[in-house]
Amino acid sequence: METTINTLTCFSSVVLTGLSAGLFYGWEFSVIPGTRQVGDAYYLYVMQSINRAILNPAFFLVFFGSPLALAAATLLQYRGDGSWGWWLAATLLYLIGTFGVTAFGNVPLNEALDALDLADLLPEEEATTRKAYESRWNRLHTVRTAAAVLSFAAAVVGALTTGPHQ
């Protein structure tokens, strides 16, 4: 039974973290380059729409489930064969670099953007708002993408080095 719980926890950690890393990676290399091609008003409207739409159960499962599953895997491996260091690295990378950057960086920017009535902005205000939002948001996104990918890689190594006796 303990082996089954360990296996399911490690598997869940890898899958959830991989989904999170994939989402952020895909955004980094497809959505961001695409949004650079649109005008200021469209950019702000699209980002407001996406920021509202992403708040859904499927995203929450992946975003909040990843650190929980990673922490559980770390605890389960702590008394094990030494792979726990990889699980700890994966957990810390995700908690600090992905979850923390999102919660304390991207989300406040998203909330400030959401509070704006875009119809009230003049074209020069649209440009100023976009510049302030986009440059900071994209820098933070690059950090959380790198952290999510590194967290996923550490979880995969952790899973591959977890001994069969676990």
Provide a concise account of the structure shown.
By secondary structure, the protein is mainly alpha-helical.
Quick tags:
166 residues, mainly alpha, 5 helices, 84% helix
General shape:
elongated
Write the element-wise H/E pattern from the N-terminal end onward.
HHHHH
Q: What is the β-strand count?
A: 0
Helix content: over 70%
Question: Mind describing the biggest β-sheet?
Answer: none
What would your notes on this structure say?
The chain is an all-alpha fold. The chain has one domain. It contains five helices and no strands.
Helices and strands, with pairings:
Blueprint: H1 2-35, H2 40-53, H3 57-78, H4 84-114, H5 123-161
Helix pairs in contact: 1-3, 1-5, 2-5, 3-4, 4-5
